[in-house]
Amino acid sequence: MKNLARKETFIQFGIYIFIITLLIFNIGCSDDNEDITEQVADETADDSTDDDSTADDLTVNNYLMIASGQTNLYNADGDQVASLNEGDAFYGQDANYLKGEAMSYTDNGDGTIIDDNTGLMWQQIPTSEDFSWQDAVDYCESLELAGYDDWRIPSCKELYSISDFGLGWPYLNTTYFTLASGQVTKDEQYWSSDYYVGVTVEGGSNAAFGVNHVTGHIKAYSANASGPVGGKYVRAVRGGDYGVNEYIDNGDGTIIDNATDLMWTQSDNGEGLDWESALAYAESSEEAGYTDWRLPNVKELQGIVDYSYSPSATDASKVGPAIDPIFSCTPIINEGGDDDYGYYWTSTSANFTSGQPYYYAWYVAFGMAVDGNGDDFHGAGGVRFDTKAEGGPLGEGGERYYNYVRLVRDTN
């Protein structure tokens, strides 16, 4: 009986050990399974992040003002000069101040370029296809590039942020950005998202703005035109909106844009001046008690264009100069005898084509960018150039030598 009792006890003890071992093994396997499950989940999450094409991976700096890129000074003959000092004729041009962040880019090696300043991601090599405006919008929205599918058509201000006015013909850094045609041609025009609210000679009430990265212009084109004759190129962009102004009226005749940290005069100078006189006027101004006013460069002045207004707008509530109504513009009667608003000088010089002297200066049309008949040809908000003085070489427009001034200064 004693032997039987010992045998039963031994069996019970063995069963107990077996159960304990089994429990430990299961727990261990469970921990291993959980580790594997977590690893798979992490890898899936990583894969999901790679495939999830949202702009959350980009930090866009609105509205960090980018330098024009122009670092040379020019005299009355359009030739480069080594230096200009305060009090000299033509002092106060773009290269005297060198405002804005120097352009800087990163090539991702996958057909995309990051603007190190704005944070926007750009399509490096655009298709050579010519689009109507709507087809360009659709192309960008359907584009899948470098694992991203949230591409969009850029605004004028976004496209202009990569324009390089230190180069010219093309006005683009081709180390990073490829031309769609592969050639330096005046047809290198790129659609923007800005549909024109006015009526142009070419497009009627169906026009949209584009940036020409060879000639440097912003013009409104027929939105319905397509193909080699009237179609335009498009360069897609990713990221949150860049170029959104945040105005505050200081109540003293000045407006601050908190997005750019620039202060502007609420009204213009009230009369047309040639370019030399415009520079001198800005340098001597003491508006609102400040003595550091200057003539804005081309990117700064284009940066306050509001493309939702035009003197030729079909919507009565949008009739006016192409600028936020917080500002005022001097009204004029244009070459066609129509109510209009003027052009405004920038401090940035231009040449008519590569290799020629810089006889010209860029201006922004806050009124209609008219042809010789005074008809709205390139749209209010267009950016063109003209000769700096009466009697100088004519540009593409050539009919106005005296333009208005809106002053700017830095607030930081």
TrEMBL record:
Domain annotation Lcl C-terminal: ranges: 111-238, 253-373
Keyword Transmembrane helix among record annotations: yes
Sequence intervals crossing the membrane: 9-28
One Pfam family linked to the record: Lcl_C
Record keywords, A-Z: Membrane, Transmembrane, Transmembrane helix
Classification via PANTHER family: LIPOPROTEIN
Protein name per its UniProtKB record: DUF1566 domain-containing protein
Source organism (scientific name): Maribacter arenosus
Lineage of the species this protein comes from: Bacteria, Pseudomonadati, Bacteroidota, Flavobacteriia, Flavobacteriales
